[in-house]
Amino acid sequence: MKSAKPNHSCSFLCSWSGGKDSYLAFYRALQREAKPTVLFNVMNELGDKSRSHGIPREVLMAQAECIGLPIEFIESTWEDYEVNYIEKLNQLKTEYQFSHTVFGDIDIQSHRDWEEKVSEAAGLKALLPLWQEDREALVFEMLELGVKALVVSCRTEFAPNILGKVIDEELIQVFQNLEIDICGENGEYHTLVIDGPAHKKPLLIDSFEIQSNKGYSFLDIRKSN
């Protein structure tokens, strides 16, 4: 099932990881003349890093500034994630007056089911602009558009080969050699978009030491002053 296409009368919130898939979904919605209102990210319960990608709050705020949109956050455990998500959607719908939600999932049905469920609970329509498209074609489309996606976290066994690198054709070959899904859809890696066609200016960051926890490695990222 393909996701419905947004049109010029559609205003939307984008579920925002800061990574390549949410970015490309956001850009697709823009190209279809939908109106963006706000980005929305879920942080861990400490409120210091995003729950999905491990990106610091200040970096996501700087990224949103580069794109020219506000970004909103909630802090949540996995246990309370759904309840908190719906509550925040309702609040943001009132504040920003949007009718749709945009998500960057490609082909994992359980993810789509959840996104449609929480959107419907808030009286919103979920849109998935990348739904059921070829994963490899999406990554090469991203490169053609000039999207620069930095690998900011990955499974620890892959870290020496891919962590801290921007996705390009050479890195795609590394993914293939290591039998990593090209989109990282199985959780092999996550990214932060530092530049692209939706940016008004590039995101400038400094990365420090690598941290590892429970089989996953992260860049300790700070934005440049």
Commentary on this structure:
The chain has 225 residues and is an alpha/beta fold. It folds into two domains: 11-127, 3-Layer(aba) Sandwich (Rossmann fold); 135-223, Alpha-Beta Complex (putative n-type atp pyrophosphatase, domain 2). The chain is built from seven helices and nine strands; from the N terminus they run E-H-E-H-E-H-E-H-E-H-E-H-H-E-E-E. The strands form two sheets. It has a five-stranded parallel β-sheet with strand order 3-2-1-4-5, with helices on both faces. The chain has a four-stranded antiparallel β-sheet with strand order 7-6-9-8, covered by helices on one side. It is globular, with a radius of gyration of 17 Å.
Q: What is the global morphology?
A: globular
Taking all Cα atoms into account, the compactness measure Rg is: 17 Å
The percent range for helix content is 25-40%
Low-confidence stretches: none
Class from secondary-structure proportions: alpha/beta
Termini gap: 45 Å
Oligomeric state of the chains?
single chain
Let me know the largest β-sheet.
Answer: 5 strands, parallel
- Per DSSP, what share of the residues sits in E-state strands of 2 or more residues? 25-35%
Order of helix and strand elements from N to C terminus: EHEHEHEHEHEHHEEE
Strand order of the largest sheet: 3-2-1-4-5
How confident overall, as mean pLDDT? 93
Query: The CATH topology of the largest domain, please?
Result: Rossmann fold
Q: What's the CATH first level of the largest domain?
A: Alpha Beta
Please give the domain count.
2
InterPro entries: Diphthami_syn_dom, DPH6/MJ0570, Rossmann-like_a/b/a_fold
Pfam families: Diphthami_syn_2 (PF01902)
Organism: Roseivirga echinicomitans
Protein name: Diphthamide synthase domain-containing protein
